[in-house]
């Protein structure tokens, strides 16, 4: 099989970390939501998630100052909403109003849950040492929520330049891990 050069700027399209998520913040009563696809699990228990929120993103300042957010996982049916959220800034628009999202109070953080998402994870920043250099926040999930009616919802996966894949069939194998 012949191989061709892969431009390094396209590597991320193949090493995509997981589902596209929505990240909410709240600061001084202002709620915001952004689309995020650059994140990864770094520990099982307690659950730790590393994520990239760029300094140019409107959510960056609120996340850095408060150290709190919610990571909400939308189902594939919300694809156009997810893309729309990612293509505008909270500096200019109330995204909850524009996209018809329902903010629900979280239990342990000030950032809101999103009722339309089938999973919501309340998070606190526990390691900010990589923020200055890489815009990387390490978050601990301190409370999780799931809609049992949508437990097996299909998720979106960013493939770059406006392209997304949707989860497919789930296969299971016996695991020896606990």
Automatic annotation (TrEMBL):
Asked whether the keyword Flavoprotein is assigned, the reply is: yes
Known PANTHER family for this protein?
FLAVOREDOXIN, FLAVOREDOXIN-RELATED-RELATED
InterPro entries membership: Flavin_Rdtase-like_dom, Flavoredoxin, Split_barrel_FMN-bd
Q: Which residues form the Flavin reductase like domain?
A: 14-165
State the similarity comment. Belongs to the flavoredoxin family.
Q: What keywords sit in the KW lines?
A: Flavoprotein
Cross-referenced SUPFAM superfamilies, in alphabetical order?
A: FMN-binding split barrel
Q: What is this protein called?
A: Putative flavin reductase
Which species is listed as the source? Answer: Acidiphilium multivorum (strain DSM 11245 / JCM 8867 / NBRC 100883 / AIU 301)
- What Pfam families does its record include? Flavin_Reduct (PF01613)
Q: Which cofactor does it need?
A: FMN
**Record-level Gene Ontology MF annotations:** FMN binding; oxidoreductase activity, acting on the CH-NH group of donors, NAD or NADP as acceptor
Note whether Flavoprotein occurs among the keywords: yes
Q: Which domain of life is it from?
A: Bacteria
């Amino acid at each position: 099989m012949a191989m061709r050069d892969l431009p390094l700027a396209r590597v991320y399209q193949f090493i995509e970390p997981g589902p596209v998520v929505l990240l909410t913040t709240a600061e001084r009563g202002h709620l915001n939501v952004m689309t995020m696809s650059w994140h990864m699990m770094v520990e099982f228990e307690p659950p730790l998630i590393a994520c990239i929120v760029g300094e140019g993103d409107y959510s960056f300042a609120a996340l850095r100052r408060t150290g709190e957010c919610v990571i909400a996982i939308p189902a594939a049916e919300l694809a156009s909403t997810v893309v729309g959220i990612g293509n505008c800034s909270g500096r200019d628009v109330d995204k909850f109003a524009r996209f018809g999202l329902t903010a629900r109070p979280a239990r342990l953080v000030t950032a809101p849950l999103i009722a339309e998402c089938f999973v919501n994870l309340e998070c606190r920043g526990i390691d900010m040492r990589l923020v200055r250099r890489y815009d990387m926040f390490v978050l601990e999930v301190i409370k999780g929520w799931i809609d049992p009616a949508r437990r097996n919802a299909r998720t979106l996966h960013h493939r770059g330049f406006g392209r997304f894949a949707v989860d497919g069939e789930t296969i299971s194998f016996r695991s020896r891990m606990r």
